[in-house]
Amino acid sequence: NNTFDDDDDDELAAVRVDVHSPQFARIFRYWLRYRPTETEKNESEGIATSTTLLKITPRMIATDDDDESTTTTTTASNPFVEKTLFLTFLYIRCSMGANAFHNRLTELVSSTSNKQAPLALAMKLRADNDFYSQIHTLQRLHLDLTPMNVNALPPFLPCPNDGKGGVIVNKTGMGSSAALVTSLVASLLKYFHVAHLPHNHNKEEKEEEANSNNENTFEIEKGLRKCHNLSQICHCASQGKVGSGFDVSAAVYGSHVYTRFSKSVISTLFTYLDEDQSSSDHERIASLLHTIVNDDTQNHNAQRQQRHPIWDNKTQPLMLPNGLQLLMADVCGGSESPSMARRVLHWKKENEPSSTKLWNELGGLNRRIHQLFQQLQAQQEAAAAHQQLDANGWEELSALTHVQWEELANNNDDHDENKRTTASQLVQIRAAFLEARSLLKKMGELADNTPIEPDTQTKLANATMDIPGVVAAGVPGAGGVDAMFVLYVKGKETTTRSPNDDHSAVNSDEVRDRVGELWKSWKFNDDHGLVCPLATRGSGYGGTSGLCQTDLGW
Fold it and tell me: At 210, is the pLDDT very low, low, confident or very high (cuts 50, 70, 90)?
């Protein structure tokens, strides 16, 4: 509830806020109404006498010469945008102080000389192509569903038109809502100078930044933590529940091993947000929100050691070992991950302790895979120091099947010890993923036959894992029939020309292309369903692998 009482609206300042979403052919228009000064306190009772600090309300579209007093049409709404704007502006106002917040907005709206067309605080949302299915686009262009063709598509493509004034939205399950919320939060905190963020600089700027002092590094870490904490709150409020938070954490930090935060971290705040608010509660919400978001961003080590932050989530950097790469796929079929997850959680609750045993086994395998990644990376770094395994060595391994890796690992006559060791580690990683897949499939069968890895996906994953160079394949996230992941040894680079007007070079590699060849001709049992590669690849942790600022222009 972000409206509160309306009896003192005449005391509020108002600013237009426009959120442009060209890929959805939408502009979300709002009024940001806020109290321009600090609220007065009743000295005898010590409480605020006002009823509203800030609220976001939909703005009507003008129907006559842009005169909004004659409006009759309401703009489109989006709960993720609206709740994120409300909570973020409330946090910013509390962080800056009411007067500074008002002055910043006044500078914006007073910078236009055309009083008939006042400026709005405008934001543009642009999503990477991989968040939404590109099958329709490729088919319309008469292109095969291959990694090369997906990678050649122009960025930020709009969703297909449904012919009725709307758009067709088919998500790929890559966390689009979390990315939207996190980007919106971060852009506002940066614009109002409330948070520092890493910058996607060019080479010269990166070298200059590398020489900056530790204080700047700390400010960026603090800024990312603010963005994370506030984005988690906004995303949970928009969903109406407290989820795991991994998708938001990944949007902020990049690839990592994640330990979720306790629901109690934000439960009190959500209790206040859900209730019918009074003026004093509104003040309390702003204060509590500010306290929770800033919980562990203190500047002094002594203070940080003495305090006990309530945010108990953990992120441990996760890097793909040198030589390995990731490929994701959009499988056209669809599954309802939330309903599947609910069924599995219900089974877990009702079948203790056997369900916990299986759960813990799967957790142990996840940790084992992480350890194997670390071991392979450490071995590659040692080999690089002694120039024992170069790109040619990886290319040779990428041309071998898993059976040939096993033979190489057991061949003591081969004098390339590092290559044998690497082959052995690839075999171990493969075995760990196969065991994890087996446990997930078993879990689904026990949980009322929930299709975590349905038979159609098992056949596709197994066929993919038989391709030379492929280490593992399976279903990501909550499972189902809508996605596939592949971990593989990067092959020899391949290049083709983009079908776009610029005919620019598009890069791939031989293993990625081999997987694409299998997928483009794959037939499911009922001849329905398509497998479309995504352009995304494995990323690192932090820096420009996570949340960062870059200049895309308007």
Answer: low
Q: What is the overall mean pLDDT for the chain?
A: 85
Greater pLDDT, 163 or 227: 227
Query: Which range is least confidently modeled, 152-166, 520-534, 536-550?
Result: 520-534
**Residue of 71 and 358 predicted with greater confidence:** 358
Residue 265 DSSP one-character state: H
Give the whole-angstrom CA distance, residue 485 versus residue 327: 6
Report residue 280 as tokens: 């004093």
Highest mean pLDDT, choosing among 10-14, 134-138, 520-524: 134-138
CA atoms 137, 140, 146, 148: torsion sign: negative
Supply the Cα-derived Rg of the chain in whole angstroms: 26
CA distance 104 to 452: 50
What is the distance in angstroms between the CA of the first residue and the CA of the last residue of the chain? 32
Is the per-residue pLDDT at 512 higher than 80? yes
Rounded CA separation 388/379 (Å): 10
pLDDT over 60 (residue 49): no
Residue 213 has a pLDDT of 53
How far is residue 142's CA from residue 156's CA, in Å, rounded to a whole number? 19
The 10s digit of each residue's pLDDT in 87-128 is: 999 999 999 999 999 999 988 777 655 555 668 899 999 999
Q: Which tokens hold the place of 157?
A: 């493509």
* Amino acid, single-letter form, for residue 316: Q
Predicted confidence band of residue 2 (pLDDT cuts 50, 70, 90): very low
How far is it, in rounded angstroms, from Cα 321 to Cα 383? 13
Chain-centroid distance of CA 189 in Å reads 18
Q: For residues 6 and 29, what is the distance between their CA atoms, to the nearest angstrom?
A: 20
Neighbouring C-beta atoms of residue 252, cutoff 10 Å: 25
C-alpha span between 313 and 11 (Å, rounded):
41
DSSP 219: H
What letters, b where the CB count within 10 A reaches 16 and e where it falls short, cover 523-545? ebeeeebbbbbbbbebbbbbbbb
DSSP string, 294-332: TTT--S-HHHHHH---S---EEEE--PPTTEEEEEEEEE
Q: What is the mean pLDDT of residues 177-188?
A: 96
pTM: 0.88
Residue 118: exposure state from Cβ atoms within 10 A (0-12, 13-18, ≥19):
middle
Is the separation of the CB atoms in 7 and 285 below 8 Å? no
Parallel/antiparallel/unpaired status of strands 121-124 and 13-21: parallel
Is the pLDDT at 478 greater than 90, yes or no?
no
* DSSP E strand boundaries for 96-157: 121-124
Read off the DSSP letter of residue 14: E
DSSP 350-367: HTTTHHHHHHHHHHHHHH
User: Structure tokens of 146?
Assistant: 């291959």
Instruction: State whether residue 95 is helix, strand or coil.
Output: helix
Cβ-proximal residues to 460 (8 Å cutoff; 6+ apart), any chain: 331, 473, 484, 522, 531
Cross-strand partners of 3: none
